[in-house]
């Protein structure tokens, strides 16, 4: 078994996404397209809100990494459920990142 050391690279920017636009498995890799919603300035005298959903990033994972992601997300979601995070989010009690 290879010994792999994790090295953090602080210079890499974070990418914010509020939507998983698409996900596909091509037989070898899982491809995710993550998007962010950008709202337009409200038009004077109009109650209609408009905006755009733009691609924030695309992530391609080999199946082994996708399975690891699924496992870790599952554990995190179980923990959040125990803390009532979904209920809080639906009632606007959870602060969203800026």
Task: Tell me what the structure shows.
This protein has 98 residues and is α+β, with helices and mostly antiparallel strands. It has a domain at 19-40 and 51-88: Transcriptional Co-activator pc4, Chain A (Roll), CATH 2.30.31. It has two helices and three strands. A three-stranded antiparallel sheet has the order 1-2-3. Strand 1 (19-25) and strand 2 (29-39) form a beta hairpin. The longest helix has 20 residues, at 63-82.
Number of beta-strand segments? 3
Name the poorly predicted regions.
Answer: none
CATH class of the domain at 19-40 and 51-88: Mainly Beta
Discrete helix count: 2
Which structural class do the helices and strands define?
Answer: alpha+beta
What can be said about this structure in brief?
By secondary structure, the chain is of the alpha+beta class. It has helices at residues 63-82, 85-90, and strands at 19-25, 29-39, 51-62. The chain has a 3-stranded antiparallel beta sheet.
Looking at this protein, list some descriptive labels.
single chain, 27% helix, alpha+beta, 3-stranded antiparallel β-sheet, 98 residues, Transcriptional Co-activator pc4, Chain A
